[in-house]
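[job 0412] stage=complex_fold ligand=iron/sulfur cluster status=START
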Amino acid sequence: MEPLWPRPKVVVSACLGFAAVRYSGELIPDRIVAALREHVDFIPVCPEVEIGLGVPRPTVRLVRVGEGVRMVQPQTGEDLTGRMQAFSQRFLASLGQVEGFILKNRSPSCALKDAKVYAHAVGGGVVGKGAGLFAQAVERAFPLLPKEDEGRLTNARLRAHFLTRIFALARLRAVEDLPGLMAFHARYKLLLHAHHQAAARALGRLLAEGKGRPFVALRRAYEEGFLQATRLPFRLPSMADALLHAFGHFKGVLSPKEKAHFLDLLADFREERVPLEAPLALLRSWALRQGEEYLEGQALFEPYPRGLMEARSS
Ligand code: SF4
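[job 0412] stage=complex_fold status=DONE, emitting structure tokens
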């Protein structure tokens, strides 16, 4: 039976399938966001509509001014920077707890890093790329939270990384006491090992020394450590090391042929000839056969709802 998953709250650019709010009056259907709707509570927002620009509307652009960037509407010459910054701060402060952001790429408001920056309010002359004004405010307000744009989410590895983190965070935030936090850490041990071994050990120490510390502060410190440790997608050698660690549990019960087969599979995984799912499936079947409950329950085997797992290897 599929475990009960808490539903992460994710802020999303409203034009990604929620409302026809693009400057052109379009809505952009997004199959990944659509698939997530069954498992995620989305909070759609269109910053440009929120600051009073209509639909359709004349385009806006980012313009380099000295060391900074302004948001300008070339057709009217209006500088919208102050309005956008004020809305962004107000909106983000009102959000409460959220687990992540999916924002529209290339937008002067929503892009996380690839909005064009122009030399002038009118005419050509792109001088660089950067984050849109709303996305800049998101980064300042929630520096550690998972954030992706819809373009990067089409990459299976980046998508798996994003989903792993938002569901882990939702699960972590539902933990209410130290034993629960320790159980969470035990469950995510292999996954943390695959991301950052030193950080995983530091989180273990944090919990070992956590007795007597106010729980909310302890959970916040653990959450920060967890988000830092998983900030980047896993590297293949680190993941292979975590898988080898899990394999160690079965050394005494496997035949030489089974051991050789797993090590071959691991080598293929390192060389990107087989997906992560191949060695994981083998380890999981051994864990089930041997009744290895610690391994069976590892989040690495199922870091987010099974209904989304198909997307992991597509
Ligand atoms: S990219 Fe952002 S500002 Fe532009 S239409 Fe979409 S939600 Fe609105």
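The pocket of iron/sulfur cluster is lined by residues 13-15, 21-22, 46-48, 104, 107, 109-110 (CB under 6 Å).
[job 0412] exit 0
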